[in-house]
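User: Need the bound-state model for adenosine-5'-diphosphate:
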Amino acid sequence: MISATGVSFSYGSGDVLDHVDLQVRHGEVLGLVGPNGSGKSTLLRVLYGSLAPHAGRVLVDHADLKDLNAREVAQAVSVVVQETPGDFPLLVSDMVLLGRTPHHSGLGRHNARDEQAAARALERVGMLGRADHGFDRLSGGERQRVLIARALAHEAPHMLLDEPTNHLDIRYQHQVLDLVRGLARTDRHAIAIVLHDLNLAATYCDRLLLLHQGRIVAYGSPSDVLTPENLEPVYQVQVRRLEVDDGVHLVFTPSFSPLPPLSA
Ligand code: ADP
Ligand code: MG
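Assistant: Bound-state model below.
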């Protein structure tokens, strides 16, 4: 489990995170939602120790993150970040094998077990057939799936993902999120995922944390968090909520004045 208590952070002036408390539990997907600039990526960076909180603390399975070295953190937590490495002259298979690095004492000494883990990870994202392709030749969506495979190859019990469905078409958005949910359900991973699409978040996340200006506005089940009362002031749109099968579906109407009609 990853748990944050009273976490605050600032890049300079003003708190970007203000007393955030959360728990990412094994077997669940926690969705981090909120408008642009609300602090979601910063929160994720604090949760994997890339940024140190100015107040509060982060525990990973009862160990304080600040007491773990980079290798120990990498063995416990895998990440899929937004900044996609651009032109890496690497094969897809090599990119995924990089995810095995925390299991080694040195670089480039991977064994049959590593190759199996890498192949399994590529298969889970539907990219095994591209193992011998150049990573820099892939489309944005394919790169994203390879980066997820790299994180899967870590075989770490916690996973943090920052908008992993960007660049993906609808089918792969669902494939990736179904995979993520499967990791929580089947492998009992503890997963936190930043998502922009609130309807995808409602479908695939067990709990949601709604962030606004670095503060938690709501934290709980999707149906408790995704209410017009919570969302309208934060996103400045009108929200209509429909009850569907076993969840909720949101329809948005911008509340700023509409553009004038196009003249013929
Ligand atoms: P989100 O992921 O929700 O869009 P971020 O965590 O990226 O939000 O950003 C939160 C706030 O912190 C924003 O106001 C952003 O401008 C600021 N910020 C993010 N990264 C940096 C940085 N490296 N240096 C200074 N300010 C930053
Ligand atoms: Mg972000």
